[in-house]
Each structure stands twice: as structure tokens, then as C-alpha cells.
Design goal:
alpha/beta; 7 strands; 137 residues; Rossmann fold; globular
Length: 137
């Protein structure tokens, strides 16, 4: 799926992402300031959580709850190597029956099985965002 959207369309885009996802793992690729966390906020809300969503830049992971699921939101921007992933227990999160939303996922991708969703956000102009969505099975 590819889609151009603006901030006013973000709730619809979030629902579309949920509808076409084939995995509980979502990898968000985008430059700084492209709206990864903003889109994640909309996805968390669309999944039914009433929790306040914020970037886990310093905590590395935030947890949000829904009636049906736990959602873990990762920001791996500051992680420099695989050892740091294991230091905070990434394998425990990967083995949970939960939804994983991962910003800056480049360092974790080699540890994943072949079942995840890739979301890439680019900016064709100042107001619009282009979302590319791909299921890896």
C-alpha cells in the first residue's frame, strides 16, 4: 500500500494500517521529524487504548494497554549494538503476545523472524507525508 496523507487523514491511515497488517510487529522507517510518533499515537488510539502516547526516546520502551492487548512502543535511536538490545530484555518483548511498534528498527531487524510490517514515511512536500506499507512474511 502507498498513500499520500496529511495530519487530518491520520486516523483513517492508522485504521488502514491495522486492517492490512499481517503481523503484530510494526517497523517504522523515517527521518527525524517525519511523524513516526504522531502516526503511532493514531495507531494506539485506533487499537482502543486511552493511554497517553509519547516518544520513548530515553526510556527505550513505553507500554500502552487496551482491553485485548498490550502495546509496546520502542525508540531504538540511541541503541548502538545488539548487546544493548539484550541488556534491556528485547527477547522478552519479542516473545510476548503483544503489539510491537518500533521506531528506528534497523538494529533489531536481523533478530526478527520473517513476519513483520514495514512502514516507511517520506515527505513529498512540506504538508504531505507519503506512507509505504509492506508485509514481510
Amino acid at each position: 500500500m502507498e498513500r499520500i496523507y496529511t495530519l487530518k487523514d491520520i486516523e483513517t491511515v492508522a485504521k488502514q494500517i491495522i486492517d492490512i497488517a499481517t503481523s503484530n510487529i510494526f517497523l517504522f522507517h523515517a527521518d527525524m521529524g517525519m511523524g513516526k510518533t504522531t502516526l503511532i499515537k493514531a495507531i494506539v488510539k485506533a487499537l482502543g487504548s486511552k493511554d497517553r502516547v509519547s516518544s520513548p526516546t530515553f526510556s527505550l520502551v513505553n507500554e500502552y494497554k487496551t482491553e485485548a492487548n498490550s502495546i509496546y512502543h520502542f525508540d531504538l535511536y540511541r541503541i548502538e549494538n545488539e548487546e544493548e538490545l539484550y541488556d534491556f530484555g528485547i527477547e522478552d518483548y519479542l516473545n510476548k503476545n503483544a503489539i510491537l511498534l518500533i521506531e528506528w528498527p534497523e538494529i533489531i531487524t536481523p533478530l526478527l523472524n520473517k513476519n513483520y510490517n514495514i512502514i516507511e514515511i517520506t515527505s513529498p512536500n512540506i504538508e504531505d507525508r507519503k506512507l509505504s506499507f509492506l508485509n514481510i512474511c
